[in-house]
Write a sequence for this structure.
């Protein structure tokens, strides 16, 4: 009886009694969700354009962050480290296309997936071999204090993350909608064969997509890294992106964003208000439970590919 | 073979194998003169699409290989060029079944055709105007998603998109497929005008021999991966066997061309 109360009425009463506290938790959760969205976004880009499920997205996040921090530790100023890391991620995309995926054209999706598994292990190992495996603090100058917005405390860090993510999405949207390469990318995502037939070189496009995913990974890595320090666990955040994708839909950019927000806010609110009743640690499995529910009731996710049917 | 001009494309005795084992083309040869419309006719499965894809090199994406013979375009061997390089040189395929980019608008679809061009925005705008001039319907639908347009409009988008590449030669695969006769007529009229006014050479694959031969200067009849007959449009159209077996003038059931020979031979023996 007591348990039932703690699971149902208790949390609701608490939420109603302390609305500003609830808001704080909710906003904190949403802003963490933004970071999940960033990781999920990288997945969606590659999956949409090439049908490859890129298991290495998490490893790319870690690798980018490690490279960025490593270069700064070697005395590069932040802007130079950033530019150099972008160049490294583009070179990585080129290498992946030339050395791995380019050799596997026309193979089954499962083979391509296995190849990305290999890339993930390689990147995890290679990154740590070069840059070391200890936790590296990353400070990109985001203030760590909070501001008071109508009685609700919000971290500067979280606000920055949200703004950066928002900018990222806006830039991507412009890139996809307004540029020649962006248009070609959408064409490839729609119909490989037709894209090939009008002279769009698929390999170039795939390299661009992997580069963009690498840069998105860098942004995600820098944000997560400044929150948690750059360490191996960054690579595991990718596992959180998986439920995000199941919820949002694997082919939808808005889906990745909304999915991330739902997971971020959901797990935080569940942890704070329902956690005590079940002994905590809801945060660790909430996303997966929610994703399971989606798999059962809406397998294409919230924004899964809309199939146009002409009548 | 024709007095329209120089040979633009010549396919010499090519053999195509899919998946390393399935032999589909068993020695196909054909020529397209500059400024001509050449029809490649034959029943479903004869190898028309495979022939076009061998030229545009879209075969690679389907695990198909040209294992014998050669393909020459403007005097150069083009077997090893990628589809993108071929488009830059002026050879573009309009695939069977239209294949529009459904989630792009009609205008965006057209613009993808200009991907390989390097002659600047103004020239591309000019081409877009030209496409809208030939296909006025596309101007009206320019902001609709291609996935929501009609079959005929999608065929126009597919052809218009190819035009945006500023091609010398279009490999046009079954433009009549699934369209009402009136629309087929409309589209063929436009293709004909494009050929006459813009000088675009056309290699046309068609099951619908009736329409194909009406617009073509020259035709090849393909059966089972081999050319079994060729001749100029007029002579093929008046040929009794073609009439009987491809134009469907006599009976509904289509017989094989080999049966024709066999039947002729028998006729000869009997008489
Ligand atoms: N990708 C492929 N793999 C294997 N066989 C194929 C492939 N594409 C076509 N074929 C076979 O090649 C033959 C010719 O096909 P196609 O060129 O499409 O003929 P058409 O266009 O004249 O209908 C058919 O028997 C078809 O089954
Ligand atoms: Mg065909």
């Amino acid at each position: 009886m007591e348990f039932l109360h703690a699971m149902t009425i208790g949390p609701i009463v608490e939420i109603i009694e302390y609305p500003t506290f609830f808001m704080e938790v909710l906003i904190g959760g949403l802003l963490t969700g933004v970071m999940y969205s960033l990781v999920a976004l990288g997945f969606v880009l590659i999956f949409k354009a090439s049908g490859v499920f890129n298991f290495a997205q998490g490893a790319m996040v870690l690798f980018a962050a490690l490279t960025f921090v490593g270069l700064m530790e070697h005395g590069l100023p932040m802007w130079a480290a950033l530019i150099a890391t972008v160049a490294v991620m583009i070179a990585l995309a080129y290498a992946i296309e030339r050395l791995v995926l380019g050799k596997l054209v026309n193979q089954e999706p499962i083979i391509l997936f296995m190849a990305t598994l290999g890339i993930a292990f390689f990147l995890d190992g290679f990154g740590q071999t070069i840059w070391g495996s200890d936790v590296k603090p990353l400070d990109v100058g985001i203030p760590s204090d909070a501001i008071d917005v109508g009685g609700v405390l919000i971290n500067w860090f979280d606000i920055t993350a949200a703004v950066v993510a928002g900018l990222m999405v806006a830039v991507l949207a412009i890139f996809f909608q307004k540029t020649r390469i962006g248009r070609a990318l959408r064409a490839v995502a729609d119909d490989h064969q037709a894209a090939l037939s009008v002279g769009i070189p698929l390999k170039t496009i795939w390299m661009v997509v992997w580069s963009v995913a690498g840069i998105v990974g860098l942004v995600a890595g820098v944000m997560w890294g400044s929150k948690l320090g750059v360490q191996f666990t960054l690579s595991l955040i990718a596992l959180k992106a998986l439920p995000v994708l199941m919820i949002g839909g694997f082919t939808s950019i808005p889906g990745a964003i909304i999915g991330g927000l739902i997971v971020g806010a959901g797990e935080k609110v569940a942890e704070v208000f329902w956690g005590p009743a079940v002994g905590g640690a809801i945060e660790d499995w909430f996303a997966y439970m929610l994703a399971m529910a989606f798999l059962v009731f809406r397998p294409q996710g919230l924004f899964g590919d809309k199939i146009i049917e002409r009548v | 073979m024709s007095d329209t001009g120089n040979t633009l494309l010549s396919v010499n005795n090519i053999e195509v194998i899919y998946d390393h084992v399935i032999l589909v083309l068993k020695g196909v040869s054909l020529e397209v003169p500059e400024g001509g419309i050449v029809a490649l006719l034959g029943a479903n499965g004869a190898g028309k699409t495979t022939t076009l894809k061998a030229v545009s090199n879209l075969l690679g994406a389907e695990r198909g290989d040209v294992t014998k013979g050669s393909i020459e375009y403007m005097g150069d061997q083009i077997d090893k060029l990628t589809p993108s390089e071929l488009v830059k040189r002026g050879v573009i395929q309009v695939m069977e079944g239209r294949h529009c980019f459904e989630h792009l608008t009609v205008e965006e679809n057209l613009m993808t055709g200009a991907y390989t061009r390097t002659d600047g925005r103004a020239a591309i705008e000019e081409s877009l105007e030209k496409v809208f001039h030939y296909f006025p319907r596309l101007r009206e639908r320019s902001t609709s998603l291609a996935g929501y347009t009609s079959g005929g409009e999608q065929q126009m988008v597919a052809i218009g998109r190819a035009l945006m590449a500023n091609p010398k030669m279009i490999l046009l695969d079954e433009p009549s497929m699934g369209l009402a006769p009136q629309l087929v007529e409309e589209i063929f009229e436009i293709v004909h005008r494009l050929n006459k006014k813009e000088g675009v050479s056309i290699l046309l694959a068609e099951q619908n021999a009736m329409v194909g031969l009406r617009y073509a200067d020259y035709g090849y009849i393909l059966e089972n991966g081999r050319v079994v007959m060729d001749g100029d449009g007029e002579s093929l159209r008046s040929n009794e066997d073609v009439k009987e077996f491809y134009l469907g003038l006599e009976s509904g059931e289509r017989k094989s061309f080999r049966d024709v020979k066999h039947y002729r031979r028998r006729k000869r023996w009997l008489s």
The first strand of chain A starts at residue 146 and ends at 149. Residues 2-297 of chain A form a domain with the ABC transporter involved in vitamin B12 uptake, BtuC fold (CATH 1.10.3470). Chain A has one domain: 2-297. Residues 295 and 302 of chain A are 11 Å apart (CA to CA).
